[in-house]
Structure prediction request, 96 residues.
Amino acid sequence: MSITSERSVPADIFRIQATSVFPNMHNTFRIKAGNEDGQFFLRRSSNISAMLVMARPLIGPREHILDLEMVTQNSALSYRSSSLLRLTIIVGPYTF
Prediction:
C-alpha cells in the first residue's frame, strides 16, 4: 500500500480481520516485526479484527515492511493457530 509523506497522525491505515468466526474462539493481534521505531500500533476493534494505526508521521521516500500476526485459540478444544500477514507500506516523497 502507498501513503503520502508526513500524513497527519494518528491515522488508521489498515484493518486485519479473521475470515471466519467460531464460537468460543479468541483472537489476539500483534505487530510481530518491522516496527522497531514504534511508528505503528494495533488497536483492537473486536474479537475478530484490529486496526493498524500510524502513530508518528512518516517521511518519504521510504518503505516499511510489517509482519502482522493473528493468533486464534480455544482453550477448551486445545486449539491454537497463527496467521501472518506481511504488509509493505511505501511512503511517497511528497505530502500530496
